[in-house]
Each structure stands twice: as structure tokens, then as C-alpha cells.
Amino acid sequence: MEQSTLVLLIIFSGVAIVIGGVLFFRLHAFLALLAAAICVGFLTPASQIEETSLRKNKLKLIEVDGENQRLQIEINKLGSIQPGMLLLIMGRDQPKFPLIPIAETEVKRVTAKFTETGKRIAIADLQIREGSASRLIKLDDFAITPANYQAAIMQGKQSVGERVAAGFGSTCTKIGILIALAAIIGMCLLESGAAERIVRSSVNFVGEKLAPLAFMASGFLLAIPVFFDTVFYLLIPLGKAMRFRTGKNYLLYVLAIVTGGTMAHSLVPPTPGPLFVAEQLGVDIATMMIGGMIVGSVAALFGLGYAVMINKRCVLPFRDSADVTKEDLTKLAASRLEDLPALWLSLTPILLPVILIAGSTMLKFESIKNICSPEIQSLILTLGNKNMALGIATVIALATLIRQKKSSLSELSTSIQASLSTGGVIILITAAGGAFGGVLQQTGVSDLIESLPQVSPLTLVTLAFLITTAIRSAQGSSTVAMITTVGILGGIAESTTLGFHPVYLALAIGCGSKPISWMNDSGFWVIGKMSGMTEGETLKYVTPMTALMGIVGFIIVLLGVQFFPMV
Q1: Where does the sequence pass through the membrane (predicted)?
Q2: From CA 312, how far away is CA 385, in angstroms rounded?
């Protein structure tokens, strides 16, 4: 069986287990992803694992002299290769197993040069050790350090359980603390009244006529640290209260709440889906936040435009529901803004991490780095660490909750435990997704995609969008769809081979998780039941809008790849 066919069969088996487990056997997403990881791990040959590991760390040959004595390689990271180092040459067409070097070389010089396109690259001149070459070296071959060669051999000897556990643990290391802290911040915003203050201040600022815009903006902002279902639970009573006050535009208010919340849910960290995708693709969290906010806000505005249009043509009846009675709406409309936390304090747990993380990212620019003393740089980097930034925001959110509710330590502990229970489940799902993605990448899927003829940047981004859309439509969960897709495509995320910044790949995956929302999506039922829509109304109004926003976001990503590749 050809390698490409085997890789496709392994990938199909894993994806089928995820979709079938969630959709048909009603497995929890954690169990479905873990089962898929174990299956893929068993099916992947040890030789394929070794070869994939080697190619992941390969150094590209760019010149071979006619006498088979001197070579030149491109260095991915300046400083990683030094004169005097030993490098092994691996053959692309040698037998698959065991993988044996075809030559040993010594680094003679490290320098730089400009390519024909004007790009400056680091290169190293190599001298082949006498008598070590078993054949003539070709440009299709590649170089590898002895350390990476040994690591690849050891990885091929690991058991399935060890490889799955390694991917699980690695993912927890990257995002476990962030998700737990975000869950606590979300709980504090809700219970302290800070979330309600943000929404009501937004509505008061823009006025009743622009209330849908306030709902969209508030939903977008709150969905950054708070899960979408929770954001909708919070905002729908306010939307009903606005309908109770105005007597019209109920459909517009419901859809406006959905627009902002659903886009932030898939595009802006520390929401689990985009956070996991960014980590897997090597995109720093500040870049993902900024990109997600730009793409998500534009897509949400298009969604709001759709909501305004459909609201003019259709009327959604206001129906009583068990969660909110007319007495509750009357009380909510009469509640005083002064009893809620100050607006600046309510916004601080959301905006402060963004500012701190962005500040540390700015130090990557030499012009900014040069004006800061070493002490200031150290402070900015410490506070701008993603875990530290969210930790500071968590302290502020907890202090706000204590101040507003005058909660005892026992009550505060109960609230924190409840939020961590929710966050813990999300951590398990994303960590299982990390394990699944890790073993998927060991199949060599990235090499398979790179070997496709004429794979343009736009084609890769389109592929990411379509794969995510297919998985989302099949099994319902946008987070699981994003986790599965990045597991398939994560190995091609180096900007040097992509031709564009990997943030665009992450954003395309996020946008692809929007179509198609229907009965297999928990959010579909939350929106329908909480708003009083029937299943048919939810399909008629919500499903086309979320699909439209995903497509609009994808178009924006395509434009970015084409005109602002950032490489």
C-alpha cells in the first residue's frame, strides 16, 4: 500500500471515530477524541513516526557541488547551527526503515545571503567527512542534527500510550492554566454584575435605536473569557427586557446577541477553541487576539446586517419561557445601574490581559525594545506572560466579586469550584484534542499536503476552512471541529513553507467552525429554547446567519493572505 493511501486511511479512521462517537454513540467529546488518538497511534507504523519526526526538524539542502564534497543548507533559526557541529545527511529515497544516514558532514561556516526574491536567509557551508558518503548527495536529501536524529529514533520506540500521554500533557502545559483562569473570570463577571454593567452601559451609551449594536458588541466582548452558552444565558433576559419595553424587534435582539458571542467564541483566545488552535500552530496569543478581533468584528457586523434585514421581513413572536417570567423582566428593567460595579472595573478583567500580552509582544520590535531599559523589559515580559496576565485579571475579578456580593470565603469557594468544574471539562477535551493532533501529525499528513501539486497559500487556507466546516456540520461542536482540523493541518504551520503567517490558518479554522449549525449543535438548542424559537425558526433565522458570518470571515482571511501575508 502506498504511503499516501495509508496516511489517508489512518486520518479517516481517526476522524470517523470522533464524528461517529459524538454523533451516533453520544460519547463525551473527551472520550471520542481520546479513542481516536489511541486508534491513530496503533495504526501508525514506527517507521512513519521516525520519518515524520526527522522531516519536522530537517534542514533544507540548497546547493551541492559536483564533486560531492561541499554542501550548503538553509538554517531555519539563526544560532541553532554553529561552526564545527556534526550534521547527518538523510536520503529521501532510501528504504523507509530503519532510517540510516547516508553521509556525515561538518559545519565550516555560517553566513547569510539574499535569494532571488530579495529575501535574506541564514545558510551554512558543510564539508562531507571523508569516506562517510554512501552515495552522491542530491538536493532532495536533507540534513539533521544528531540530537534530532536520536530523538526521532526514540519517538518511534515509544508505545501508543506514551505518545498519547505526551500530547495530552503538552497541551495541558500550554493552555490548562489559561482555561481554568478564564473560567473563574467568567464566573466573577456574571455573579458580581460586571457583565450586566457592560451590557447596560453599552445600551445606554448608544441609545435604544442602536441597542442591537450594543448587544453584539457586549456579546463579543464577554465571549472572550466566558463560554458562548453562558453569554447567551446572561444576555437573553436583557434582550427580552428590551422587547418588553419597546414591544418590537425581538428577532433582531436575539440575533444580535448571537452575532458577537459566536464569532468571539471561535476566534479570540482565551476561549478554548482558538486558544488551542493558536498554540498548535505556534501563533502567539496576542497576534491571535488581534487577528480574531478584526476578523470576528467585521463578520459580526455582517451578521448584524443580516439580522436587521431579516427582522424587517419576519416577526418572531415573544413567547413566555420557564427561565424568565414577565415579573422577572419588569424587575430587570427597573434595576438600578448604580447597584452594579463601575464600568472601568467591570472591563478591567477583560481588557487588562489583552494590554499586558500585547505589551510583551511589542518588545519583539527593535525600535520599541531599544527605548526600554533591561529592568523595564523584564517587568513587561513577566507581566505579559499569558498565564501571569490572566492571573492578575483573575485577582481583580475575584476582588470585584467579593466587594459587590460581600461573599464569605465559603460562598466564594463554592462559586470557584463550580467554575473550575466547567473549566476542567474543557481542559480535558482540549488536552485529548492535543493528544489526537499529536498522533495525527506523526502520520506524516503535513508531508502529504506539501507534496500536493501547486498548493498555493489560498488553497491551504481554503482546505482548512472546508475541513473544519465538514467536521462541524457532521458532529455539531465547533470546538471539536477546530481541534480535529488543527490536528490534521498542524504540521504545515511554519510560515517559511506556508508562504503566509500561520495566524491566517488559525483564523480560517475558526471561521470554518461556524457553518453549519443545526440540531446536532448544543448551541442551536440553547439559542432556540432560551429565546422561545421553534426548531424550524432556529433553522430559518440562526443557521443562515452563522454560516454567513463564517463565510465573510473566511473571505477576510483570504484577502489577508493575498495582500498582507506578513512574512
Answers
A1: 7-25, 31-49, 175-195, 215-238, 250-268, 288-309, 342-363, 383-402, 414-435, 455-474, 541-564
A2: 47
> What distance in Å separates the CA atoms of residue 422 and residue 427, rounded to the nearest whole number?
9
**CA separation for the pair 377, 359 (Å, rounded):** 10
- Grid coordinates representing 369? 525594545
The domain total for the chain is 2
CB of 137 within 8 A of CB of 71? yes
Query: Are both 455 and 555 inside the same structural domain?
Result: yes
CA-based end-to-end distance of the chain: 38
Q: What is the pLDDT of residue 61?
A: 87
Percent of the chain at pLDDT above 90?
A: 28
Cell of 247: 414591544
113 and 152, same domain (yes or no): yes
Residue 168: per-residue pLDDT: 93
Q: Is 367 exposed, middle or buried (0-12, 13-18, 19+ CB in 10 A)?
A: exposed
24 occurs within a structural domain = yes
Taking the whole predicted model, whether its pTM rises above 0.85 is answered as no
414-467 pLDDT, tens per residue? 888 888 888 888 889 888 888 988 888 888 777 777 666 666 889 889 999 999
95 pLDDT higher than 70? no
Range of the domain at 114: 58-157
pLDDT at residue 97 greater than cutoff 60: no
State how far the Cα of 181 lies from the Cα of 272, in Å rounded to an integer. 12
Q: Are residues 18 and 101 in the same domain?
A: no
The pLDDT of residue 46 is: 87
405-427 burial string, b = 16+ CB within 10 Å, else e?
A: eebeeeebeebbeebbebbeebb
Name 114's bridge partners. 120
Are 8 and 88 in a shared domain? no
Residue 196's alpha-carbon distances to 232, 259, 322, 340, 348, in angstroms, are 12, 18, 21, 8, 14
Which of 107, 135, 157 represents a domain boundary (last residue)? 157
* pLDDT tens profile 350-391: 889 888 888 887 887 777 888 888 888 899 889 988 899 999
* One domain for residues 462 and 556: yes
The bridge status of strand 70-75 relative to strand 120-128 is antiparallel
The pLDDT confidence band at residue 57, using thresholds 50, 70 and 90, is confident
Residue pair 303/263 in contact (Cβ under 8 Å)? The answer is yes
Do residues 35 and 126 share a domain?
A: no
Q: What is the DSSP string of 96-116?
A: SSS---SEEEEEEEEEEEE-T
DSSP 520: T
Phi and psi for 88 in degrees, rounded to 5?
A: -100, 145
135 is a domain residue: yes
Considering 139, 157, 175, which residue would you say is the last residue of a domain? 157
* Confidence check: pLDDT of 230 > 70: yes
* Residue 499 Ramachandran class (φ > 0 left, ψ -120 to 50 alpha, else beta): left
| CATH code, domain carrying 124 | 2.30.30
Domain assignment of residue 348, yes or no: no
